[in-house]
Amino acid sequence: KGEGTDGVGTVTVGGVPGFTLPAGKTITIRFRVTVDTGVLPAFTTVSNQGTVSGSNFADVLTDDSDVVGVNQPTVTNIDHTTVAVSSNANPSVFGQNVTFTATMTGVPARASDPPGTVQFKADGNNIGAAVPVVIGAAGDNVSTAQASISSLSVGSHVITAQYSGGGAGATGYNANIGTLAVNQVVNKANTASAILTDTPDPSLTGQSVTVTFTVTPTGLGAGTPTGNVTVSDGVDQCTATAAVGTCTLALSTAGVRNLTATYVGDGNFNASPASPAATHTVTTTATWVGGTSSDWDTDANWGTGRKPNLASHSANIPAAGVTNEPTISVADVTLTDLTVATGRTLTVNVGRILTATGNTTLSGNLAGGGTSNLNNLAINNAAGVAIGGNANVSGVLTLTSGNTTVAGTLSVGGGGSITRTAGHIIGNLKKTFAAPGSFTYHVGTANGYSPLATTVTAGTGDLTVKANEGTAPPLPAATTLQRYWTLTEAGNLTANLTFNYLQTDVMGNEAVYRIIRVEGGLPVSLPNNCPSPCVNPATNTAVINGVMNFSDWTLGEQLAPTAAEADISGQVVFVGGRPMRGVTVSLLNLTSSEVFVTRTDAKGRYRFEGVATGTDYLISVTKEGYSFNPPSLLFTHTNAVAGVNFEASISTPVGDDGIQKLIKEGAIQGDKPVPSDLKPPGKP
Q1: CB atoms near residue 66 (< 10 Å)
Q2: Under 8 Å between Cβ of 361 and 378
Q3: Cα–Cα distance between 531 and 550 in angstroms, integer?
Q4: How far does Cα 284 stand from its chain's mean position?
Q5: pLDDT tens digits for range 209-246
Q6: Are 486 and 552 in contact (CB under 8 A)?
Q7: Cα separation of 26 and 272, whole Å?
Q8: Rounded to 10 degrees, what is the CA torsion of 668, 669, 670, 672?
Q9: 324, 429, 471, 513: least CB-packed within 10 angstroms?
């Protein structure tokens, strides 16, 4: 028996060191070759031939006596079983179910089939338990076995099928092992991402939106992806693992946003492309529903589930779908635009401030005793609206339709303006004059529109106007307009006024109407001296210029005297309010041409005592180097009049001596810098 890795061995005949063959003699050498059991080579025959060698002769090849010819090897058929392994998907992807098939064939062929079992292995590890072979057509000498697996990791795998062998004798089959010719390759599986929900939708800018998503293998892949998923609208984003399946982001861009989810992949799964877009609406406007309470600061009361909490947000109080009316009571509110629809009421409690920096549309009511600071305010409700507290408009106040009843004061700032299509203000309307300019007070009462057109010619300050129904006290109703205007000033304004009145308010003889000022309960009737003072019945207007004292104003017939004689008094002051002494005050009786003259005292006061009533007078004030506002005043003297005041200003620059004189007179203060308009040219 020869031993060797290549099946080649040497046998010494006759022991060691051999033997000597006598001359003329022959010897027959017989040998046998045994094929090892166990794993058989993939051969169907074994060829056996020996070489006899020695000394004194050439090597001789052995010969198979059963085969014609000389020096023929002995060829022996080997009974064995071939095992061929195949894969139904190579390469495959992670999670894919792959089936391996082992085909056993007996060699040589015989009219039977290989029995037994097959154990499949991947990288030396069993793929499940051994499976019995399946015989196809009986007696075709072929059997098969299959095993499936879906848990192979990404990479290259050696797949083997170990056949157990079986049977005996002529129908026996040897055991054998087959190997998949090309390693099984497992690639990463492809994936797809999808957004399932995004709530709340719509949402406010800056509001947290919760997005749920999923990542699934596509194609033949299977399993559960790990790794991160990013949700984005192209500006804002959030990230969470695929296993968590949800993340929260705050969307900062208003409009219709396209949300997508993108998976980054892991060791077993490829990254996904961006998911199909989920449209999400982002708005800057929160809509009130009031489903929980009337509290503005309760998020659940808003349709988006979030109150407008940024200055860029707006609020809409709609006409329908509201359970409770909103109330601002917990904290001040700042937003951009505000809409209060017809039938709705927004209450701003005392101590609270509502600020709207954009446009406010008021078709409903603004109640409560709080303060509303608004940029532009448009009022539009033919049935009228109400404002409970104070409202300040810094931009444009637009009156589109309906009257606005104001319990406090509706103010228009120094840079603000007013426009009107229809409707008017019932209550106090204030305008701030940061410089001379014009403004129409669109005021009136429940029974009519009676605006006041104002042109401020000098000074700065606030002027508030309110129209009132009825007769101004203490005037007689039978001869006085059934309407009067209350003017309240804060500052040092000088203004030209045009009152517009209703024909239906006229009582008495309109043809002899005069402008009447009532101050401190004392009326002063100003005779017509067109263009000012001037009542024009044809246009239902009354004009008076250079007004410095603001109180109640109305129209009516000339007042009847309350006594035969009455005093006339007043004060002359410098701009700024310091009293001016030594001013000449002249009182001219326009009926008799009689003139009365007096001078102001150290407190700037003057008085004419026992002046005959029932006639017209002209008061004038003069002093060298000064101009006065007004320079004179025409009125009808019917009773005691106080507060006929004038304001002085220096008319020309003066030198050092003049400045000392002004200091002495009180026009300027000695410890203060000399005003530049008082210095002579070139004087430091």
Answers
A1: 7
A2: yes
A3: 20
A4: 5
A5: 999 999 999 999 999 999 999 999 999 999 999 999 99
A6: yes
A7: 85
A8: -100
A9: 324
pLDDT attached to residue 601: 96
What is the total residue count of the chain? 684
Q: What is the structure's pLDDT at 576?
A: 81
**Residue with tokens 């700037």, as numbered in its chain:** 604
User: How many C-alpha atoms does 439 have within 13 Å on its Cβ side?
Assistant: 28
Question: What does the longest C-alpha to C-alpha distance in the chain come to?
Answer: 196
Residue 677 CB-half CA count within 13 A:
8
pLDDT of residue 665: 55
How far is residue 100's CA from residue 88's CA, in Å, rounded to a whole number?
7
pLDDT of residue 49: 75
Whole-number CA gyration radius for the chain: 57
Q: Please give the Cα distance from 397 to 415 (Å, whole number).
A: 11
Contact 181, 87 (CB under 8 A): no
pLDDT at 482: 98
Distance (Å, whole) CA 515 – CA 522: 14
Here the tokens at position 108 are 């040589």
- 240, 219, 222: which is closest to 231 by C-alpha? 240
The pLDDT of residue 24: 77
CA–CA separation, 596 and 598 (whole Å): 7
Residue matched to tokens 């001596």: 657
Provide the pairing of β-strand 353-362 with 371-380: parallel
- Contacts for 176 with CB less than 8 Å, ≥ 6 apart: 39, 40, 80, 81, 82, 83, 104, 163, 165
Displacement of CA 421 from its chain's centroid (Å) = 34
Give the residue from 671, 670, 669, 666 showing the smallest Cα distance to 602: 666
Residue 451 per-residue DSSP state: -
CA 557 to chain centre: 63
Which position has the token pair 């407190």? 603
Predicted confidence at residue 53, as pLDDT, reads: 80
pLDDT < 70 positions in the chain: 1-19, 29, 31-46, 76-79, 562, 652-684
Tokens at residue 94, please?
């992670």
